[in-house]
Amino acid sequence: MPINKSPAPRSAKYKRRRLVLFLVLIPLMLIVLAGAGYATFLFSSAKLAVDNSYDNVRSGEASSLRDKDVDPIKDSFSFLIIGVDDSTKRQANNGGNPRSDALILATLNVDDNKLEMTSIPRDSYVHIQSDDNTTNRYTKINAAHAFGGPELTMKTVEDLFKVPVDYYIRFNFDAFLEIVDALNGVDVDVPVDFTEQDSNDKAGAITLKKGKQTLNGEQALALSRTRHIDNDIERGKRQQLVMKAIIDKATSIGSINKYSDVIKAVGDNMKTNMTFSQMLSIAKYGMTNDIDMKSLALKGEDAPQDGIYYYQLDENSVESVANEFASQLKGVNKPFPNAMPYSEENTNQ
């Protein structure tokens, strides 16, 4: 089959004084900075939002790749961020089961205060197999959510990297738009000129020029979604760029009075298998530790089949990234002991 090589991805490394792993933790982390009455209101609102968003995927049991249950922050753990478009139009086109539009796998090493993450291209050609074998096929990884929701998505990512996925958090595009707008926009150094459709699929509705600027919800979403200008690897980098911008804005003291709207946006548009107490412990940890954030780059190439576009992940790249993730999770053996250690050089094509 024809294969056209994609531009080589490059990894990036960031240092942050504060860690916000999940957008729902934003209001929790700054409770101590607010007045007593408002802090109580925020805390109660956040707890209600998380409680309403809770989904007992796996019924609280540990991943099959774990020897025992995980207790954050006592243990290092992994989590999968799932972005979906579950708009009315998308539901009509997909029979009510949206495919994932963004997947970011991350590990938090609580011993070394290190957060590592990688974006998984949505068109990655992978094997998807459910536990009951009702789904057993090779196709795009974003189909896992359509076939079996967060649970099958977590299993598919586990099968790909051979490392446990302990938790997930799923957001839809409405949450993304509302959170950015609730923060009165986010500051981003846009890496490239582009034109993209908006959340209502209106073609050419969003045009951005390269350079530093404040983006509203629609613009930030367009930057995260656009992929026709290069490839899914670069798209994943833009998603992480926007995520970092949201973290920067949300952790500024000036954003405290906007948190009521942020909490509402999160609560209305999120699902997760983390409990409120688990999230609160992570928030407290993030407030008291310097976190080293590192982006791991996957590589691969275009691999169309029968007129359908797929992205074929490079096996060596997957193995080196998987081993790097495993090294951050205490008690998890490296799944590919013969793979080369992860490095920027090893991800270049």
Automatic annotation (TrEMBL):
<dbReference type="InterPro" id="IPR050922">
    <property type="entry name" value="LytR/CpsA/Psr_CW_biosynth"/>
</dbReference>
<comment type="similarity">
    <text>Belongs to the LytR/CpsA/Psr (LCP) family.</text>
</comment>
<feature type="domain" description="Cell envelope-related transcriptional attenuator">
    <location>
        <begin position="99"/>
        <end position="251"/>
    </location>
</feature>
<protein>
    <submittedName>
        <fullName>LCP family protein</fullName>
    </submittedName>
</protein>
<dbReference type="InterPro" id="IPR004474">
    <property type="entry name" value="LytR_CpsA_psr"/>
</dbReference>
<dbReference type="Pfam" id="PF03816">
    <property type="entry name" value="LytR_cpsA_psr"/>
</dbReference>
